[in-house]
Amino acid sequence: MSIKSKFILSAAAVFMGSTAYAGCGLSGGNVSILGNEFAAIQAVAEGAKQCAGGGVTVESNLNKDYRELQVAALTANPAQYTTVTTTNAAIVPLLNSDLIRPLDDLIAKHGQHLSKNQMITVDGKVMAVAFMANAQHLFIREDILKAAGVEAPKTYEEVIAAGKAIQEAGLMQYPFATTSQTGWNLAQEFVNMYLGHGGSFFKPGTAEPNVNNETGVAALNTLKELVSLSNPDYLTFDSNAVQSSWEAGDVAMAHLWGSRGTGILDDEGSTAEIVSNTALISSPTVGGGSTPASTLWWDGFVIASNASDEDAEASFVAMVNGISPEVVKANNDAAVWLAEGYEPSPASAGVAATATGGTKPYPMIPFMGLMHTALGSELTEFLQGSESAEQALADVEASYVAAAKEKGFLN
Amino acid sequence: MRHKTFFWFILPSLAAMILFIALPLASVVIQSLHIEHEQVIVTTENCGPFGCTEESSVDTEATAALRAEQPLGRFAGLTTYFDRGHLATAEVAEAWRSRDSLGGFFSELYNLPFYKALAFTLTYTFLVTPLVILLGLMIALGVNRLTPVLKGPTIFVSLLPMIITPLIGSLILFWMIDAQGVIGKNLQWLFDDPDLSLKASPVLTWITLMVYGVWSSAPFAFVVFYAGLQTVNSDSLEAAMIDGATRWQRIRYVVIPHLSPLVVFISLIQLMDNFRVFEPIVGFSAQANATSLSYIIFADMRSDITRFNSAAATSVLTVIGVAILLSPVLVRTWRDFKGKAA
């Protein structure tokens, strides 16, 4: 695209919105974006780049390791990146270290049309603007379930029963898969299951751990039954591995991220038979609970504290342009957009159903990251059968306490 | 050489060593003795697309004030070293007190992250190092006997495992040993066990990692030994042949004694390298069954909340571990040196 046509395009975008023309109405400023890398974020970054020109520069670094970069990059003064696309979990270290600025004045000036729903407020101040939602939910193969004579499962108990039925019918040896790789992924599965059982991770009002209890044991036992329906290599499965075994037709039920829906439903990497029989449904409930055993996530952007006011304003305007109705419409199927202009699609059915079920968001608590890490490293032995559920949960608490003491959350 | 000349002669390397070795080491030691400030926690109402909740958050202003007062954090002495994530002295003492058998004590010990990592690290180091030396020597002796035409291509092929980046090499093998991969499937067929998975059980994962370790390091030993073989005195070999020594006897009594300084050199390098085993664990996604000290440091630095102090303590413990591991070899070298001087 030539500079001229870019100019015309962005000019068109601006007149259609409110303030979009070359430089998006800005006199100057440098915008640099750090973010995760998947289709939706790429679309947002491209949208933000439409604001370049007329003294405004827009650069982006989209990288799946953005979480490891963000704290160091924003601690620098001036910050290496003026804006970061982050999530409800990844924002916590930024909030903890006061690296992002309140956006209220910028919203009053440039973001009047943003919906209240998109604003992430902490203690009354807007700290981030969300543009998409994500959640883990169930992917099912309707043909296999039908052949085994079972309905689409609504609870994890039904998932387990369906899995056994598929095994007994001789359709598949390992019908179930989830992101159960030791570390962050496995911990996330426990978080889902524990919240689904109605647990809470900390004693109210404190940073004291609270997982070594009956709820924790029940969550672990459900998890163990599930992985017994999974390929024995389950401790090495991340999202990519689950997606490829789904596309290879090796599994009939998978608990996987909604953002993978587009990739699974497209016509690449799989056969028409598998794709046409894939349905995206709500995450199941567990243990008689009423809300799905999953967590809701938002992806949104934040603006660095250590950026000059001019750059911060330019970044905000550029990012708002990146989530404009035009961008959302052009990339409708790439995500479950929270921004204006979005039409629900089959790829988003699972996330929408999970959200409607009243699923809780992933806790945005300063010490939750430490708990997540402790869970990721200490649950494996129980699943392998070399230690009891109580011992595993006691290890999680001990490991968390050691980390929380070092980070100053506990004394 | 006069002292002054000597000083100016070594100044550049001395400066580089202070800058790149001594100072970082001192910084790591200082960090390991500190822990972070107490975080001032307040309860706030947080709202988003999924509704509002009362949640804890950090009072950044109050915490920033604490941080400005003491930028290094709170001085904690050796507490980080003794906590559960490291030497876990309290847990070890408790396990020893309540033991019913020695086996029970060791399984309690194995439940602690540091000792679990240490168990794998040491097993790996002490199995891979001698096997690398043995295999390297065997390849070198074999290649040395080849006709000159074949030597070049054979040397190139033997060096391949070392040329491939460790992380890439282990990732390629990871997919080959997958239950669907070419090695995995063949092993299932060979052992007539359709459920055989090299990634599932701890024992098989350990074996896989060690086989990988030998595979990737053997070329290093091979190159060094092959160079050494070119300097074997042919007079002594001929003399041994005239005396009626078999090929084995020539290797045992002429070649190996000639190569023994190289064995010390390779052991030193390999002990250090293997004690820091890391890439294969990431490449093979083996963290469920095998962790190493380096992997613990990596995990501390890569989690959502970075734990610099804990990582620093593990680093210092690793340095101490390497020093202990190398001490017998270093003491021997020092004795040889003194013997020569005297």
Structure description:
Chain A is of the alpha/beta class and 411 residues long. Chain A is 42% helix and 15% strand. Chain A has two domains: 3-134 and 296-350, D-Maltodextrin-Binding Protein, domain 2 (3-Layer(aba) Sandwich); 135-295 and 352-406, D-Maltodextrin-Binding Protein, domain 2. In chain A, strands 1, 2, 3, 4, 5, 6, 7, 8, 9 and 10 form a ten-stranded mixed beta sheet that branches. In chain A, helix 8 (184-196) crosses helix 16 (368-378). The termini of chain A are far apart. Residues 1-21 of chain A have low confidence and may be disordered. Chain B has 342 residues and is mainly alpha-helical. Chain B folds into two domains: 80-111, no CATH class; 119-333, MetI-like (MetI-like fold, Orthogonal Bundle). Chain B is built from 15 helices and four strands. In chain B, the strands form two sheets. Chain B has a two-stranded antiparallel ribbon. Chain B has a two-stranded antiparallel sheet with strand order 2-3. In chain B, helix 1 (3-32) packs antiparallel against helix 15 (308-341), helix 6 packs parallel to helix 10 and helix 12 (247-275) runs antiparallel to helix 15. Chain B is globular, with a radius of gyration of 26 Å. Chain B starts with a helix and ends with a helix.
